[in-house]
Specification:
- This protein has 5 helices and no strands.
- It is mainly alpha-helical and 86 residues long.
């Protein structure tokens, strides 16, 4: 558990974990990979939240998905993603 609380790889006991932390925190390639992974995760969570809001609006106001997305001013790009789920 100690290693998971460390902010620096140098303070870690388990060398395999320290090696991975060093890669993702201290190299340009690792930071780039981590940034991309975080952006993808944030986007997935944003879409999930938006999907839930659209569903709630559809149920509460008896709207179609298109009507709900229009009211919420959902971007065309997000509409394509969300439309595949309805």
């Amino acid at each position: 558990m100690h290693d998971f609380c460390c902010t620096s790889a140098a303070d870690m006991f388990y060398q395999e974990l320290a090696k991975l932390v060093r890669h993702f925190k201290e190299t340009e390639g690792g930071r780039s990979q981590m940034s991309k992974a975080m952006e993808e995760r944030i986007n997935r969570e944003r879409i999930e939240t938006l999907f839930g809001v659209v569903q709630d609006l559809m149920e509460a106001m008896k709207m179609t998905a298109e009507q709900a997305m229009s009211i919420l001013k959902v971007s065309d790009e997000d509409k394509v993603v969300l439309s595949k789920r309805f």
